[in-house]
Write a structure and sequence with these properties.
This protein is an all-alpha fold. Among the domains are: 70 residues, Alpha Horseshoe (Serine Threonine Protein Phosphatase 5, Tetratricopeptide repeat); 83 residues, Tetratricopeptide repeat domain (Serine Threonine Protein Phosphatase 5, Tetratricopeptide repeat, Alpha Horseshoe), CATH 1.25.40. It has 18 helices and no strands.
């Protein structure tokens, strides 16, 4: 069965550092966004050419994904004061979020020209080079960031990604472990370690996935990884329990329901109990080829030939090269 792990999307780019000048917006972190925005709008109304206020409002807009407004404000802030490295670093975030990669790179370069010893700018350039798959350049900037701050967790994480994509699993593991040593709540590093250990059939995967759940119990990929590891390594009861925890967060997760059915069908040899789980999975996502195929096997084991034929045919229609489904369909007399 194909591994159906939901791979977490890597959050690229670090938050830009704060302004060093005075006269920033007096935003209370405990206020709601609307209150903060109202406050800073009033300040800008009274002082429309204050670049610091425009910078702060741009960050507020960016945090809420109002990207056009964020870009408008940071561009105006830079036009009023082009000497501020953090402005360009934030601008790179906005460019990156709007898929303007070349413009993002130029903005980071400008930030580095103004402040070559900025750990955040070096880290961000290293991360962008990783995205561009220029690993030599990535390591150059990432190592520069670590010379400035040897405890920078995210830099170790990005280095781990670089090592992993270059096939050096041992150095990737070392980097991800260093990341969580610096920041014991680094979710994505635990996930990377869990995935690597799972591929190695190493039971340390359980610890890493469990730590990922500890750090952020709302991320379903951690439950899926842990449940799948239990499923494939002789702990079907624990797998089902973990999958059930996932379904409390995402009640319509078809692949998870399919996997529970798979356990009942093949691990517990109970085709009757597997069928409702496959059916629930298909109700959530009728494109789940394996759910059609495995429900067909369950029907076949129960002697329900016509229902099995129908499910095998649905699997074949979705995946015409699905040889195992075609073979079972043919043996049952399907045409």
């Amino acid at each position: 069965m194909n591994r159906l792990l939901l791979i977490p999307v890597i959050v690229l780019f670090l938050a830009a550092c704060g302004s060093k000048k005075n006269n920033k917006a007096n935003i209370d972190p405990n206020d709601t966004l609307s209150t903060s925005l109202s406050l800073i709008n009033e300040q800008i109304k009274n002082d429309p050419d204050n670049p610091n206020l425009l910078y702060e409002r741009s960050k507020l807009y960016f945090s809420q994904k109002f990207l056009d407004k964020a870009l408008e404000d940071i561009n105006r802030a830079i036009s009023l004061d082009s000497s501020r490295a953090p402005f360009y670093l934030h601008q790179s975030d906005v460019f990156y979020a709007t898929n303007k990669i070349g413009e993002a790179k130029k903005a980071i370069e400008k930030s580095l020209q103004l402040d070559p010893k900025s750990k955040d700018a070096n880290a961000k350039m290293g991360e962008l080079q990783y995205y561009l798959k220029d690993y030599v350049a990535a390591f150059k900037y990432l190592d520069a960031a670590l010379r400035i701050d040897p405890y920078y967790a995210k830099v170790y994480f990005i280095k781990g990604l670089c090592f992993k994509e270059n096939g050096d699993t041992n150095l990737a593991i070392s980097s991800f472990r260093t990341c969580v040593e610096q920041d014991p709540d680094y979710f994505h590093a635990y996930m990377q370690l869990g995935n690597i250990m799972a591929e190695k059939n190493n039971r340390l995967a359980i610890d890493y996935y469990s730590n990922a759940i500890r750090v952020n119990g709302s991320m379903i990929e951690a439950y899926y990884g842990l449940g799948y590891f239990y499923q494939e390594h002789g702990d079907p009861e624990k797998a089902i329990k973990t999958y059930e925890s996932l379904l409390q967060i995402d009640p319509h997760n078809g692949p998870t329901k399919h996997n529970i059915g798979y356990i009942y069908l093949f691990k517990f040899e109970d085709p009757g109990k597997s069928i409702p789980h496959f059916t629930d999975a298909l109700n959530d996502d009728p494109r789940l080829v394996n759910a059609w195929y495995h429900r067909g096997i369950a029907y076949e084991k129960l002697g329900k030939k016509e229902l099995a034929l129908k499910d095998y045919k649905n699997a074949i229609d979705l995946a015409p090269e699905f040889d195992m489904a075609k073979e079972r369909y043919s043996k049952l007399g399907g045409k």
